[in-house]
Amino acid sequence: MKISGPLVSKIDKDLVAELLAIAVRLAIKDTKIWGADSEAPTRLNWVDLPVTSRDLLPQLDSLSAWARSNKLDEVILCGMGGSSLAAEVIAKTYNKSLVVLDSTHPDQILNSLPKNPANSVIVISSKSGTTIETISHLKYFVNYLNNQGLKPENHLVIVTDPGTPLDKSSRKSGYKVVNADPLVGGRFSALSAFGLVPAALLGIDISLLLDDAELASKTFYQVNSPAIEVASLLFSQTKQVFNICDSKSNVPGLSDWIEQLVAESTGKNGLGRLPVLIKSIDQIKGGVSIGLSKGEFDLIIEASLGEHFIFWEWVTALLCYLLKVDPFNQPNVTEAKERSSTILNSIITGDFKSEIPVAENGEYSIYSTQKIKTLAEFLKTPAEYFAILAYLPRTDNNEVLKLIQLISNKTNKPVTFGWGPRYLHSTGQLHKGGQPNGCFVQITSEVESELAVPGESFKFSDLIEAQALGDALAITERRLPLIRIHLRNNNSALKQLISEL
Asked: Would you say 369 and 481 are in contact if contact means Cβ atoms under 8 Å apart?
């Protein structure tokens, strides 16, 4: 891999010397690097994945052969955060078709259904085996396959840690199960079963990813280590925001994976580094810029996908050492989950009471903790960054994406974007645990398609509403500025909102 750009000249030699000693300890999986209370004792096996994941190859070869022989060439992956982001990047890099379902929005679920169910393989990925979104997807697809006259055991592949509730129930049901290493955290699991099972089903040569990662990792605890250099720069040359661009690179979509890894790992104790995804250099509103291909960036990092995966995991772990935070926990993610669960239960029992909007028109209603009536007024709120949190169906051409540049131009501040509830397993940790200087624009909508969760007393529309409101509550309880815009009709309401801005 190659590191270049003007920022390289600002590498702090003292920091590098300090990190070299830490990198040597990391290479031998010293669990004490991040303090006595760190989750490191149960989370450090990612360091060895370029080697240990080779043990999966016979099982993955068998799985791939099973899919080919049964003509299962339409792959759908249900998983949140670390259970799906790496696989999505692998598919994009190798130009393979992979449908990723990381939403509880009913329309998104319906859009993810296979074109030919008989030729589909559905991967259900959950480290804990209890992720409410993914377990709900499993129940839905089991029911869907049965209704199609197909046997679920002929189309389902489960990826989870050994001994989880999902592991036990899936084996009992006769589903194909691949166990991941339980000593690897979700966002550090790119080279584990979570990234490799979907890749194998897509016919990708996994050994090439592992070869590249293994060779690169041997340089990370040596003099002139690129991981040490970049970690020191992200610590010394950034205070919070850095911009990252994968446009025109050999790793399309990698920025989304880096965003989750860095934000969720570093964003705690009032500290953190916030990656802002950009498509071009002229979108920058403060902070250094990192490009994954040649260009006018402050720092350019060129590498293969396997190298990038293990590189950024090392960078993140070393950066967290400098920030004095535990890279492996996510304490504030639980806040939103607990509040969502409470709201979902109140919806189920009929005790839920809707908020009163501060303003509304024929297209949308506005709810806010601030004394404002419009989005334009809200954007005058002092902040270091704005975050758009969109609980809408995820598409590449959704009108809501136009808000990123509009809000950035209006505020002259960095703007991040997250699809809900996906971001809850990503930047959601940093929003609540990082620097308390963000402003949050949450967008929800009326749901056009009602969809039941088989075996449950709630619908998917109830679940996504509870998740949005639960996170909004967790944000406002921290006295952070939030506006929620509830759309009555997605397209027309978004067009009016954009027109007003």
From this structure: yes
Residue at 95 is within a domain:
yes
Phi, psi dihedral angles at 184 (to 5 degrees): -125, 125
CATH number of the domain residue 480 falls in: 3.40.50.10490
**Cβ-based neighbours of 115, under 8 Å, separated by 6 or more:** 74
Q: Which of 269, 288, 323 is the last residue of a domain?
A: 323
For 218-290, where are the alpha helices, taking DSSP H only? 226-236, 254-266
Q: List, for residues 406-448, the tens digit of each pLDDT value.
A: 999 999 999 999 999 999 988 999 999 999 999 999 999 999 8
Q: Which domain holds residue 134?
A: 48-209
In a domain, 34, yes or no: no
Contact of 27 with 220, CB cutoff 8 Å: yes
The helix/strand/coil state of 419 is strand
pLDDT tens for each residue of 212-262: 999 999 999 999 999 999 999 999 999 999 999 999 999 999 999 999 999
In sequence order, which residues have a C-beta less than 8 Å from that of residue 183 and are 6 or more positions away? 42, 43, 44, 45
Q: How many domains does the structure of the chain reveal?
A: 3
pLDDT at 491: 87
Query: Mean pLDDT over residues 2-14, rounded?
Result: 98
Helix (H, G, I), strand (E, B) or coil at 58: helix
Q: How far apart are CA 375 and CA 400, in angstroms?
A: 14
> Which residues neighbour 246 within 8 Å (Cβ) at sequence distance 6 or greater?
252, 253, 254, 255, 292, 293
Give the separation between CA 416 and CA 422, rounded to whole angstroms.
14
Asked if residue 286 and residue 337 are part of one domain, the reply reads: no
Cα 33 from chain centre: 25
**137 plus 275 within the same structural domain:** no
Check residue 177 and report its DSSP letter: E
Nearest to 496 by CA among 358, 360, 363: 363
β strands within 50-119, DSSP E: 74-78, 98-101
CA 386/CA 480 separation, integer angstroms: 11
Task: Please answer whether residues 501 and 376 qualify as being in contact, where contact means their C-beta atoms are separated by less than 8 angstroms.
Answer: yes
**Claim to verify: residue 342 and residue 300 sit in the same structural domain:** no
User: 301, 323, 345 — which closes off a domain?
Assistant: 323
Percent of the chain clearing pLDDT 90 (strictly above): 96
Is residue 398 pLDDT above 90, yes or no? no
Tens digit of each residue's pLDDT (9 = 90 or more) over 103-117: 999 999 999 999 999
Give pLDDT tens digits for 261-313. 999 999 999 999 999 999 999 999 999 999 999 999 999 999 999 999 999 99
For residue 121, list its beta bridge partners: 75
* Nearest in space to 239 (alpha carbons), one of 203, 195, 288, 281: 288
Q: Name the nearest CA neighbour of 420 among 2, 81, 48.
A: 81
